[in-house]
Design a protein that fits this description.
elongated; three-stranded mixed sheet; alpha+beta; Nucleotide Exchange Factor Grpe, Chain A, domain 2
Length: about 190
Amino acid sequence: MQAANDPRPGDEPQVENPETEADAPAAEAAPAELDPWEELEAEATKWKEISMRTAAEIENLRKRTAREREEAVRFANQRLLEELLPVIDNFEMGMQAASQDKSSMIYIGMDMVRRQLHDFLAAQGVEEIPSDGMFDPNIHDAVAQEDCAKGEEGRILRVTRRGYKLRDRLLRPASVVVSKLPDQPGEA
């Protein structure tokens, strides 16, 4: 049986180095012995940076909230206006039917209502999409193409349903009939 103090095979005898033990407390004490003023300045700098970042984040939040609120106010009526457009379309069809007798009181009254509707839409920032000239897929919806002997391909021939914008947003694209070049007899 081996004694408790006898070295075992594979165990290295532990020799204590007096130099290492003496240097260890000095090495540990070096970082801890910072000047208290330097520690306070470092702490103050850290909190100053945190407060500056927080202030910047709050300012960005204020600006973003104000921008979102302004946009919500500008486009608050969008859904209502979108639902009103088919009513205006039907009213315009009634105006076309009543235009046969422009001297009738019904036509005169309907024309006054039409002007009020257009003034209301203009006050809300709604404008009609221009549908003369060339087809633009961003604001027009081509519902048909027709051969056109003269002119160029892609020209708007007629509007089947008016389109509208609310400020810079598209409420509804204009439905249009677009010209195309006639098919040549040899093509098919």
